[in-house]
Design a protein that fits this description.
Keywords: Cell membrane, G-protein coupled receptor, Glycoprotein, Membrane, Receptor, Transducer, Transmembrane, Transmembrane helix. The protein is mostly helical. It is 74% helix and 0% strand.
Length: 318
């Protein structure tokens, strides 16, 4: 009798368990150290990105509005701002460890991170190509004929990203597995599809190849400038222009490449909780690219250049 009564009580306890705890079959939360790392990275990206976007907005007022480079920078400011708007939702989730904004919005926030990464890469490539065309004297300057052309070109990119890519991501992504109502950013079940795996491998190969080509060409240009310029290269504007181009590539290497390289391992070990957490950390590092505008503002200032020259002279004396 005691055994049967205990069995009944046990069954009743399971049937009266809150529904929320039974809707998370694939949920996994990072431990405290990893969670604090994610929170720290997103806070740094949010604060630094916001300051950089505001500072660059003031500088854009003085720039040539017909320049293709200026148009790319304007789009970067808008792109970073859109991502930064989603960061508070990620911070709330990692702090409270509970998602309360709905599954569709979770997919939209997740999609914005990837859209930001690849559009940032696109605008970097455009800016670098324009700089190289001018450097090799194939073009004196690259400008739109009218402001309307700049607006139309920017609008075309955003229409593809927001009107086509984002709805497709929200509609199609997250349909292969059962995801909890109070968890977010855990779409590892999608990687079990062979088509999704193949797409990821293609993207990884393309991004890695582009990064290597950009870096190789930029190093070649810098070496060519160093050989051509007389005396100390630190006092020449042309050298600093190439250093600024190298900063674009540095952001790609530091922020975007680790995510893609680790993705190769992650695809093959999607069932491991630790690999999922590391993938989230690598993805969060892509948000650090929002600091690029702040670095461009600081790097372009005369005060910064003077300090670099002073530091070089002190090291030379030592």
């Amino acid at each position: 009798l005691l055994i049967s009564r205990n069995t009944v009580d046990h069954d009743v306890a399971w049937t009266t368990m809150p529904e929320e705890t039974t809707t998370l079959p694939n949920a996994s939360q990072p431990n405290d150290i990893e969670r604090y790392a994610l929170i720290t990275i997103y806070i740094v990206a949010f604060i630094g990105g916001t300051i950089g976007a505001i500072a660059m907005s003031f500088l854009l007022v003085k720039m040539n509005t017909l320049s293709v480079t200026t148009a790319a920078i304007v789009n970067l400011v808008v792109l970073h701002s859109l991502l930064l708007l989603t960061v508070p939702f990620r911070l709330y989730y990692y702090i409270s460890q509970k998602w309360i904004f709905g599954f569709a919005f979770c997919k939209a926030v997740s999609a914005m991170m990837h859209i930001h990464m690849y559009l940032t890469l696109l605008f970097y490539i455009i800016t670098l190509i324009i700089r190289w065309l001018i450097f090799f004297q194939w073009k004196d300057k690259v400008e739109f004929y009218r402001k309307l052309h700049a607006v139309a070109a920017s609008a075309a990119v955003w229409i593809v990203a927001i009107v086509i890519v984002l709805p497709l991501f929200v509609a199609r992504y997250g349909n292969s597995g059962e995801y909890g109502n109070t968890t977010c950013f855990t779409f590892q079940q999608e990687l079990k599809k062979e088509s999704v795996k193949a797409l990821n491998y293609v993207i990884i190969a393309v991004v890695t190849t582009i990064t290597c080509v950009l870096l190789g060409l930029q190093v070649f240009i810098i070496l060519k400038v160093v050989k051509k310029l007389p005396g100390s290269v630190w006092s020449h504007q042309e050298f600093w222009a190439q250093i600024k181009s190298l900063m674009f590539i540095s952001v790609i290497i530091i922020c975007f490449l680790p995510y893609h390289l680790f993705r190769v391992y992650y695809i093959q070990h999607i069932e491991e909780k630790q690999s999922e957490t590391y993938n989230d950390i690598c993805l969060s590092i892509t948000a650090i690219s929002c600091l690029d505008l702040l670095s461009f503002v600081i790097g372009g200032s005369r005060f910064f250049k003077q300090k670099i020259i002073m530091l070089r002279d002190k090291l030379a004396c030592c």
